[in-house]
Amino acid sequence: MDIIKSPEAMQCRVLELKRAGYSIGFVPTMGFLHEGHLSLMRLARSTCDVLVASIFVNPIQFGPNEDLGAYPRDFERDETLCEQEGVDIVFYPDPVGMYAADASVWVDEDTLSRVLCGASRPGHFRGVCTVVAKLFNLVLPDVAVFGEKDAQQLRIIERMVRDLNFPVKIVRGPIVREADGLAMSSRNKHLSESQRKDALCLRRSLDIAQQLAESGELSVGQIRLRMVELIEKVPEAEMDYISFVDDATLEAVDQLVHPVLIALAVKFGSTRLIDNRVVVL
């Protein structure tokens, strides 16, 4: 397994590989890998000749009061896990190499990014789209795999690929959960023991929504009320949002008629967690 730190060297390597006829699979990450990331690597591994994973904590997707400095990092552990999963190249750049001091060009999606996490994290998805566009230009993947846990991000990347004609196929990887149902996240590390137990309310609230929908309740207002009641009983839970949106357009809905994405963000202390489920009746 090779580790490449220079953006120019990364691009040169994949150009050589593509000229030789190799297909490239890609999994972008911010490191501190867990089973969710590894499942995406296994999915990508099955689609390509050469698998590239990037590890880059992207500074431009963090707001001024967010956890950039506290974001967990452990490159040696990540390197071992990548090698175990059959990754051929780890792209491990630093911010200085990725962003010129006078950088002034950004990629900004203007519709899907207005809601959900985009409403409470202004500028976040501009940072995501910009770095993913740069990574696509440097890695030149034929296939890139993104996880469903970051549902809004996934749909925004799919829209960016469509609208800007990136020659890459986006593959969706399912959410991977802990044994008790908590969605795997690098930020789970920051939870105290009590917060870790409290955080299970995300999954339980989604389960209640699913059960109500399957029993015939189609009113978003009624389902959301039950979800709020459950989360408000949890001592340290601070709701950011619970939203019901069309799975394709991310427009708000008031009835479960078409496939609906139920997405929520909840803070436990300083740790903000997200989860989601698509309900199809």
Explain what you see:
This protein is α/β, with parallel strands linked by helices and 281 residues long. It has two domains: 2-173, Rossmann fold; 186-279, Pantoate--beta-alanine Ligase, Chain: A,domain 2 (2-Layer Sandwich). Helices cover 37% and strands 20% of the residues. It contains ten helices and nine strands. The protein has helices spanning 7-19, 35-45, 75-84, 95-98, 117-120, 124-139, 151-164, 193-198, 201-214, 220-232; strands spanning 2-4, 24-29, 50-55, 89-91, 143-147, 169-173, 237-246, 260-268, 271-279. The strands form two sheets. It has a six-stranded parallel β-sheet, with helices on both faces. Strands 7-8-9 form a three-stranded antiparallel β-sheet, covered by helices on one side. Strand 8 and strand 9 form a beta hairpin. It is globular and about 55 Å long. 36% of the residues are buried.
Quick synopsis:
By secondary structure, the protein is α/β, with parallel strands linked by helices. Helix content is 37%, strand content 20%. It is built from ten helices and nine strands.
Low-confidence stretches: none
SSE ordering: EHEHEHEHHHEHEHHHEEE
Average pLDDT across residues?
96
Helix and strand content put the structural class at alpha/beta
Strand content: 15-25%
CATH C-level of the largest domain: Alpha Beta
**Topology, number of strands:** 9
Find the CATH topology of the largest domain. Rossmann fold
Widest β-sheet, arrangement of strands: 1-4-3-2-5-6
CATH-level-4 superfamily name of the largest domain: HUPs
Large-scale geometry = globular
Q: What is the CATH architecture annotation of the largest domain?
A: 3-Layer(aba) Sandwich
Instruction: Quickly count the helices.
Output: 10
Helix content: 25-40%
Tell me the domain tally: 2
The gyration radius over C-alpha positions equals 19 Å
Q: Biggest β-sheet: count, sense, barrel?
A: 6 strands, parallel
Head-to-tail CA distance between termini:
45 Å
